[in-house]
UniProtKB/TrEMBL annotation:
PROSITE patterns: 4FE4S_FER_1, 4FE4S_FER_2. This is Epoxyqueuosine reductase. SUPFAM superfamilies: 4Fe-4S ferredoxins. GO terms for molecular function: epoxyqueuosine reductase activity; iron-sulfur cluster binding; metal ion binding. The gene is queG_3. The lineage of its organism: unclassified sequences, metagenomes, ecological metagenomes. Residues 345-375 form the 4Fe-4S ferredoxin-type domain. It is found in: Cell envelope. NCBIfam families: RDH. It comes from bioreactor metagenome.
Amino acid sequence: MSNNKKEEKKHQHLFSRRDVLKLGGLASLGAGLVSVASLGFINGKSVDTYSGWEGQEGEIYFDREPFQVDKPPYKILRTEIKKVNGLDAPSDRSNLIKELGLDKTGVENATGALKEYYEQNPDIMEKDKVLFEEIEPKRKETEKTLGNRNALWTAWNSSWDVLKPKKPGLPEVSDWEGVRKPAYEIKDPKKMSEIIKKVAGTFGAKIVGITKLNPAWVYETSSGGRGWEPGEKVEMPSWWEYAIVVGVPHEWDSIMATPAFAGEKDGTVQAAVVGARLERYVKELGYPARLHAPDSSRFDILVPPVMVDAGLGEQGRFSFVITPEFGGNVRTAVITTNLPLEVDKPIDIGVRDFCKECKLCAEICPSKAISFDDEPGEIRGRGVEAWFIDVDACLHYRQSVPFTQRCKLCMTVCPWTRKDNWIHKAAKGVIPRDKTSLVAKGLTWAQESFYEIPDVSEYTDPKWGSYRKAPWFLDVDGVIE
């Protein structure tokens, strides 16, 4: 069968699926209305609340205890998991290319570990050539034609860089810098965990989870920086015993104006700063600590499964971990340490079954990077089950977006990612308990029926999602020429 016929057949399937969802959606939503309304009356306090958060000190409204499970809800398919090569991450590889100046001289001139990587993955080198020789130059030309449209956004986004944490060196040096001697003896790990969560909240964290660090989630080799050379083997230190995961959401109004005004650094830098403060706090107690964070600091570990292990949520179809509080709208930092702590259990809130039916993120993705498969499968021969994401296609689209170089459309279209009002909050509490999937189908129907989900062409050249008006504080109209 030709590719065109396959695409046609797929879209025929899509339309029929969406028609069924819409026809059955109202009935499904009505079936769960009584339970939704009762829970909503208890949980919801205002239709204007954004996150379900009660204040500025880290209280978490979602009660995870009824949904705790003994094992993480992802599937391990082999006894031994194949670890991640740091150069497999396109964003990290792109950063390395820029650091080496290869974005100007050509990626085919790579040396060392990057050259070896390209020799093993020639298709990746061709994709990187397209990124730096075609996509980025075209984006810069587009930005010139758009003038000052994003002037306020640019000022706002760049301002977050004022407090970016620095990159650490090798763990045996950086993890021990500033550690108090002697260490305080921790008599009650459970109480210490409660304190860590409270303190993280005062630092700005919105959700916090703690887990034992699974060595399988530590990178096999580095993409460079953080003390290691590109391609160098990452040795997990003995003191990376626990992982404290802290999360904050992006600013909601900016996120909902994606991709034209998609915020990025507001979430990444905030998460990194919260993590840096918590790293310092742990060291003041006398224990080694290492920050793994988005933006400048970066990672030595694979974050989504660590989030799942720590009980913050489940990994969804679009690879983000979906949390009960914020859906996929959360950026996280991780602190590895041997401070004695009590760990949290993972949770099962029904994301896997929900994502099997929904597929809205795959439909809206401009890069077609998200799988439409009904079931998740093994990812890149690593022995772990998840839905496939074409990470290079995703990066290419993001880098093509004028000014923001971001997307997050998958996150914003997800029914779990909504400003919380009482009915939406309650529905997310009912979904894990609803074995009929009626409420889940109803929530997807509501998303399709009441929120704008235009054709994907609206998010590419020349429109770039411009029909979505900028949040008022990023709107240049009447302020800047």
